[in-house]
Design brief:
Blueprint (H helix, E strand, L loop, with lengths): L7 H29 L4 H23 L2 H5 L3 H27 L2 H7 L2 H13 L6 H18 L4 H27 L5 H22 L9 H28 L2 H8 L2 H13 L5 H26 L1
Helix pairs in contact: 1-10, 1-11, 1-12, 2-9, 2-10, 4-8, 4-9, 5-12, 5-13, 6-8, 7-13, 11-13
Length: 300
């Protein structure tokens, strides 16, 4: 029996939050790209997640939810730390790729995360892969092949990094889905950002890569990246899922690469080559196919 239809105002609110997530993450890629021209990826990540953590604290103070945000058991804390380690590896791969490639290209390729999550869920959670998911996986694979065909060394390295990072992201998402109990979104984002910032700071310091930022313009770019990527992007997606179906939210969020491409063209004056655009469109089409057919099957 299909679920009751949601009120139009609720759907519009959910759509708005999904668009906020797509715009924030797409535009955030440009701020990250600018900062990565000066800072090593591992140092940038320490700053970005530290600022993202402070953004959640401000949210909690304004909402008077500080006590709720900090309420977490030792078991949940340990689990969030493990998830943070996986996300650290994934984000390091992503930002290393972003430092050497077009933001839109990286954004297109990052859609592979859904594919990795599906495959890992099938392996470890014994979830059955449907026909619609197989079709979508084949389209995504075709997109990757198009992007990799006669590719430069830099693009081949970018594809490899994004693929590795996507599987680490997927592993984190599978762990969250299989183990963690529901908690306030501020709790999850706060502790994830806290752990990731500390981990990146320690590694950056031990590796001799830490840089104290004293340039005002660079700090402003870091603040923008820290607010929109690890905080606003995730907040928008979580808020969207509270108001609309997950499949609908996921489809809207797949527009992220187009916002990244538009922002890069407007601010940086850059745009990926035609072959990378075609490959990226196939990747997005594959992901949307999975979600659309999944939704259609669920209604039968």
């Amino acid at each position: 029996m299909p679920a009751p239809a949601r009120p139009q105002s609720t759907r519009l609110r959910g759509d708005m939050w999904a668009v906020v997530s797509a715009v924030a993450t797409g535009g955030g890629f440009i701020a990250a790209k600018a900062a990565l021209q000066t800072l090593p990826p591992i140092t940038f990540n320490a700053y970005m997640f530290g600022i993202g953590m402070l953004a959640v604290v401000v949210d909690a103070v304004i909402s008077r939810k500080v006590a709720v945000m900090l309420k977490v058991s030792f078991r949940q804390l340990a689990f969030l730390f493990i998830v943070a380690i996986l996300f650290c590896g994934a984000v390091f791969c992503l930002n290393t790729a972003l430092a050497q490639s077009e933001p839109a290209t990286v954004s297109f390729l990052s859609r592979i995360e859904l594919v990795s999550t599906l495959l890992l869920a099938a392996i470890f959670l014994k979830e059955r892969i449907s026909k619609s998911e197989i079709i979508g996986l084949l389209i995504v694979t075709a997109g990757i092949v198009v992007m990799r065909y006669d590719a430069s060394v830099e693009l081949s390295r970018t594809v490899m990094l994004i693929t590795i990072g996507s599987f680490m992201f997927g592993a984190g998402e599978v762990l969250i889905k299989s183990k963690i109990d529901w908690m306030d979104y501020r709790t999850f984002i706060f502790y994830r950002n806290l752990f990731m910032s500390v981990i990146f700071f320690i590694i950056s310091s031990l590796w001799g890569k830490w840089v104290w930022v004293d340039d005002g313009n660079l700090m402003m770019v870091l603040i923008v990246a820290g607010i929109v990527l690890p905080y606003l992007g995730r907040l928008g997606y979580l808020k969207a899922m509270q108001n609309i179906d997950i499949s609908r939210a996921s489809i809207i969020v797949q527009s992220q690469p187009f916002f990244a491409a538009a922002t890069a063209l407007a601010i940086l004056g850059t745009f990926p080559p035609f072959k990378e655009v075609i490959g990226g469109l196939l990747i997005v089409a594959g992901v949307v196919t999975i979600k659309l057919l999944e939704k259609k099957t669920a209604r039968v």
